Amino acid sequence: MAVRSFTMTCQRSFADLSGDRNPVHIDPLTARRSLLGGVAVHGVHLLLWALDVLAAGRELRGFARLRAQFERGVLVGEAVDLVWQQDKDRLLGRLTGAAGTSVRISLTLAECEASAWRGANEMDALDCEEHEMPALEKKAGNLPLALPPDWTLMFPHLAAGFPPAIVAALLATTRLVGMVSPGLLSIFSSLDLSYEPATPPGDTLNYEVIRADPRVRLVDMAVQSGGLHGTVSAFLRPKPYAQKAMAEMRETVGANEFAGQEAILIGGSRGLGELAAKLLAIGGAQVTITWRQGEADAQAVVAEAAALGMHMQAQRFDVAAPPLDQPGQSVPYTHLYYFATPRIPAGWPGQFNPALFAMLLDTYAMGLVRSVNWMAARSVPNACIWYPSTVFVEQPDPYFAEYAAAKACGEALCAQLSVQMAPLRVVADRLPRLPTDQTQALAAVDMADGVATLLASLRRHAELIREK
User: Fold this and answer.
1) Are strands 2-5 and 286-291 parallel, antiparallel or unpaired?
2) Exposure pattern of 436-452 as b/e (b: 16+ CB <10 Å)?
3) Separation of alpha carbons 176 and 50, rounded Å
4) Residue 208: left (phi > 0), alpha (psi -120 to 50), or beta?
5) pLDDT tens digits for 435-447?
6) CA 402 remoteness from chain centre
7) Percent of the chain beyond pLDDT 90?
8) 20-54 pLDDT, tens per residue?
9) Whether 347 contacts 71, CB under 8 Å
């Protein structure tokens, strides 16, 4: 077994080696708004590393067939375990991360001649193409192969006997998916390749889309380079979800219905926090939104409010270590809205992942405690802390057991904190599935209206604080 965590330095090196510079692999701010929720390690990087580990323990001179299924993304900094085992005439590899199996590999070995690489050492930089599903139907073309010499430093054991032409073609598959087809919004799903060593190596990877299924946003491509041929599959993920603009919601909210609120929204730079901040500001509240990574997102929301003549401010806030001082805050807060959330990876039916549960609990429970303690010294005595929970607590979803359990702990904590911290009030609302970056899916999913749902909750708790 081997264990590894990939760093941003690894990411940039592999992006240079492969030519796959899709932002989801190298730009943390862009990647945080993707379905993966963070910088994703290239699937082909994981595959080549797994083959390199295998080559360290045995002679590896090629394959007759190679299949890889990329089941879950692996994020930078996440530890992955690799295990290889023999199964009759095949070798099976499995990479497992914090949320479960990430990659499954099936390898049928063959002796292939590992002649020296005689092709290009440098590749032309590609623009990252962006496509919708209809444009991908029957898309075809070719990518020149290139193999920079430092591939031997990155995969030294593989370089000892594995055909470099195969490595160049594998690198071209990630360049194809990440930069060309589907391109910008891609997720590499799988590859199934066979190799005929008697055929001379090619100098391009030829590709043709053979299926583009809009129902699940799946693109299957036939690929061929010399004796290497097979299929590559990728998903076209949805674009980051854009919450409704403030100008579109002005008629929905009374101009003064939230007047008198001094509100801080933890995690208000995007998603439901962004939407709630806009609704409160339209309704006359004085609003501060916080960000931990997405300063640009937060400043964009502030600028949107300013363009409509509304004042909003933004500051950095990390629920793991709330700031000691509050720059520019002289009036005590009346409301704290707790939208802090980490990436929420799906679990696996029939399994409960303690590590995933602990990670979510740290934000949804411990982070809440830290924020409430921080708020208590900066608020009016009967301030309201609002905690968004989920209907998954009462309507279990087999893929989100850890998430629902962490949110349920947060609900129980709200009840305890309301007693401990009285007259400060800590209230929880169970929300249906609402559209955000995190709730988007490859297939259509029914969701409630975010504006109507949040506005009803904001109004309910605005009344409660007035009654208090």
Assistant:
1) unpaired
2) bbbbbebeeeeeeebbe
3) 21
4) beta
5) 887 776 655 677 8
6) 17
7) 75
8) 999 999 998 888 878 778 899 999 999 999 999 99
9) no
